[in-house]
Specification:
This protein is an alpha+beta fold. The chain has five domains: about 70 residues, no CATH class; about 110 residues, no CATH class; about 70 residues; about 60 residues, no CATH class; about 80 residues, no CATH class. About 40% of the residues lie in helices and about 25% in strands. It is built from 14 helices and 20 strands. The protein has a five-stranded antiparallel sheet with strand order 6-3-2-1-7. A five-stranded mixed sheet has the order 8-9-10-11-12. It is elongated. It starts with a helix and ends with a helix.
């Protein structure tokens, strides 16, 4: 049968005649990379010896699988990729795409001969593979990713926005899946200004949120400005910061915040000196700090604000501190318990519907009942009740001491 088939092929197929004359038994099997030529080889073997080598059948199955992978890859639009490194060692490389035929996201945790092994996006498998990564020599892992915007715009421009949102979700969940990814983010420090090229394309953690983003990637640097882009979003927004603006941010982050005050002000301290801070409202959304004396002399603050600072803050020390604050949330309500600076007692305030200003009052018996009635499902309720109860014990001890 094989001889008859070969005779037929010789008469009808020029490719078969060329293979039998030029390649058969002249080219190693491992160098033949397509199924049709391998089948020619098998049929010629069958005609010659009456059987085909098992390895030849294995090669045919292998090439059939390769062709299936290539065909699948042709229908996938690659959205981007994640790479995780420890120093120069690549620990993981994962590609993400969109299968145009199935209209579904896909992922490739590995590839074969540079062909991605695409499979449907599986959240447990993806996040499990990333969360299992652990550094060997340092305390953090470098999490990097690339969004292939041009490829998407060229192949499926109508789906660009939806695929961008899908990719954002993938990156956000992936980054949060392993604590060592966060530890691998560089903090904003003087080194960014001194050696910007060493920080190029690296994610940098800013001390304040900028346009809703705290982690930004340095994309360009020169003597006049540094250009940053959101790291966990595909946003095309670029932020240009001058060295002077970055230096100001570095100075401001060294101020420890003590308390939130009225009029949108914040009380801080640095090296034993009081500072007054106010959100600058500009692109960095950071704090502009001035010493307390400078704030009292500044024309920026009204006489009413200066009177409040002098009387309530300096003279009466009437403010609550941020350290150890307890926040409660339930059914749209938000409440806070904070210690008063003067006596250390817990004070309570709840956000109003039309009034964003918090008005604190001592946390007494009625406050306990109010919390139990309206914040029963808050995870911090018991912590708040215990804090109020403990402060009563502290006050009783003080009173007993005074009686003695």
């Amino acid at each position: 049968m094989a001889r008859l088939w070969n005779l037929k092929e010789r008469l009808l197929s020029r490719d078969f005649r060329d293979f039998a004359t030029l390649e058969y038994e002249r080219i190693p099997l491992e160098d033949i990379r397509d199924i049709q030529r391998l089948k020619y080889h098998r049929n010629l073997d069958m005609a010659k010896t009456g059987h085909a080598d098992a390895s030849l059948n294995g090669l045919i199955s292998y090439q059939r699988k390769i062709e299936e992978l290539v065909k699948l890859d042709q229908g996938v639009v690659t959205m981007g990729a994640i790479k995780v490194r420890e120093n120069d060692d690549l620990l993981a490389s994962i590609r993400f795409g969109y299968d145009r035929h199935r209209k579904a996201p896909v992922m490739a945790l590995r590839d074969h001969d540079n062909i991605p092994l695409w499979k449907p996006l599986d959240w447990p498998e993806l996040l499990g593979s990333l969360s299992s990564l652990h550094p060997k020599a340092i305390d953090g892992l470098e999490f990097g990713h690339s969004f292939f915007a041009r490829d998407i715009q060229r192949t499926v421009p109508s789906d660009f926005e939806s695929l961008g949102k899908m990719y954002d979700l993938i990156i956000e969940k992936s980054f949060r899946s392993n604590k060592y990814f966060g530890k691998g983010v560089l903090p904003l420090d003087a080194g960014v200004l001194e050696h910007p090229l060493e920080h190029l394309h690296r994610p940098i953690l800013f001390p304040v949120s900028i346009k809703g983003h705290e982690i930004l990637r340095l994309t360009e640097a020169n003597a006049h400005y540094l250009v940053f882009q959101p790291f966990l979003k595909t946003s095309a927004d670029l932020l240009h910061l001058t060295p002077k603006e970055i230096q100001e941010m570095l100075r401001n982050q060294r101020v420890d915040r003590i308390a939130k005050l009225r009029f949108g002000l914040v009380l801080g301290i640095r090296e034993g000196q009081l500072y007054i801070g106010k959100t600058n409202g500009e692109k960095t959304r950071g704090m502009d700090w001035t010493t307390f004396r400078e704030a009292m002399e500044s024309p920026v603050h009204s006489a009413k604000v200066k009177y409040y600072l002098a009387k309530k803050i300096v003279k009466e020390k009437d403010f609550v501190i941020e350290k150890g604050a307890i926040r409660l949330e339930s059914d749209g309500r938000t409440a806070y318990l904070k210690r008063h600076y003067m006596d250390g007692r817990r004070h309570y305030a709840e956000t109003g519907r039309n009034d964003k200003e918090l008005h604190f009052r001592p946390a007494d018996g009625p406050v306990i009942g109010h919390l139990r009635a309206h914040f029963s499902d808050s995870e911090n309720l018991q912590m708040a009740l215990d804090a109020i109860k403990e402060q009563k014990l502290d006050i009783k001890k003080i009173e007993n001491t005074l009686n003695i």
